[in-house]
Amino acid sequence: MDEILRPLIEKVRHASMVDEEALLFSWRSACELINDGVPGALVECGTWKGGCSFGLALAQRAVFGRVVRPVYMLDSFEGLPPADGRDGPAAIEYQSRPDDPGYLDNCRAPLPQVLATRDSLSLSESECPIRPGWFSETVPPLRSELLAQGIAWLRVDCDWYAPVRFVLDELEPLVAEGGVVILDDYYAWDGCARAAHDYLSHNDIPYRLRQEGSGFIWAWFRKQQSRGLSDPL
Ligand SMILES: C[S@@+](CC[C@H](N)C(=O)[O-])C[C@H]1O[C@@H](n2cnc3c(N)ncnc32)[C@H](O)[C@@H]1O
Fold this sequence. Notes:
41% helix, 233 residues, Rossmann fold, 7 strands, alpha/beta, binds S-adenosylmethionine, globular
């Protein structure tokens, strides 16, 4: 499938800070879930300029001939909230250096620019529904909307403890058995790792965190309530 997906990277490269290997994993894992009939929506929380989500819609077109499942895109489009102690010293330092080239305007992505990118890729609101605003305002209504259909693929790419934990608390319970949750910042930021551990531990969940690819870039888990004796690892 990667031969089909790889050419899409250049179409969305300008609109995503996600590593190429991680983009390919994200798109491949979602297309495989669709292929395998795992029910539910596709959701990215923390889209920045939208490249990963738009790429997933294009990936569906390339693999299935159409956007089979819409990609819900949630972001403040105002950048990251302030980091706190749980996010660790690196996060606090990052936000204290607005002149650093890696600051990227605190991950701000103006909504009109994101809408223009969606248009330029010939994607529609029904294929990539964009829900602008802070997660505290946008996630609860999405949760209600998706309660019946559930979620097959959840990409959590919002860096800090508070938003990662909030998204997991609200949306992870909707993920279908066999579905995938990607923790983009697990290795990058202390807060994301802490939020993931706290969420799993607080809810007494045995999902195995998995590392993928050639480096410690992202982590993910497949939702599996318990491992049967003969289930593959
Ligand atoms: C690292 S960027 C996402 C990168 C993106 N997935 C890509 O493909 O490049 C993190 C995003 O999380 C968003 N974010 C973090 N906390 C948020 C919150 N509480 N509510 C809404 N958006 C949030 C920021 O606005 C930012 O765009």
